[in-house]
């Protein structure tokens, strides 16, 4: 294994190298003040809960739940957690090693992903990503694989794929952060709201629930959502539910009377009215039409001229 800067060109130009995890751990800190130190490895620090500060020679970064900081090898830093305000973190450190037949290599990632290549060109010693909850899933999956993934090439392949996914995702989030601050934040709010709708359309949710999940005032969220999506949250949710209902009617045997429950509607009568308004057909007629099309496709008859 070889230490050195994450941005060192040799990882891309002097053969095939890949990241190698050298340390990983969960830790609950409270009233903790670390002395300044550095690593010969690149470090990810993800805040699972609570607050803390990470200080470098150039900056003091206040962090909270969902924040991620990446510290390049050789960056002097220290962690501080105040008394009575515990902070739970997940730390992952990595260096580099030859690929030994396990790909993609670090160089291949740089060649194939624009955001990753741009990150390597910018060379930030310290990279902070706010509200990066989607990174947490990758980190947790990576650590779980390291813990219980067994031994051998299969485990090495999986961990390399996961850390490659992590690096690309971090690079893309960093690219988003490089855009205009206000526009970027609005886009993120709208995207998060849309993701919430896609994950909870089967529940009885309202615009105020979406606003609470995004941590915005409902009126403001409604305004920026409509400006970006060209429809209101209510209209977007209704359209999403109709699309899910169409899929259930066409591709499953879920009884029609239960489809409303599957898409978060308590009233079957309202579901039928909403579905017919959107499609021009009742749920029963839609299912029948799709069944007829499928029957014809499965029983095609070729008509030929008799000589």
Automatic annotation (TrEMBL):
Gene3D superfamilies referenced in this protein's UniProt entry, alphabetically: Homeodomain-like (1.10.10.60), Jelly Rolls (2.60.120.10)
Highest rank taxon of the organism: Bacteria
An annotated Gene Ontology molecular function: sequence-specific DNA binding
The keyword Thylakoid is assigned to this record: no
Presence of the UniProt keyword Signal in the record: no
InterPro entries per UniProt: Cupin_2, Homeodomain-like_sf, HTH-like, HTH_AraC, HTH_AraC-typ_CS, RmlC-like_jellyroll, Tscrpt_reg_AraC-type_HTH
HTH araC/xylS-type domain ranges (all copies): 191-289
Signal sequence, start to end: none
Upper taxonomic lineage: Bacteria, Bacillati, Bacillota, Bacilli, Bacillales
This protein's name: Helix-turn-helix domain-containing protein
Pfam families (UniProt xref): Cupin_2, HTH_18
Record keywords: DNA-binding, Transcription, Transcription regulation
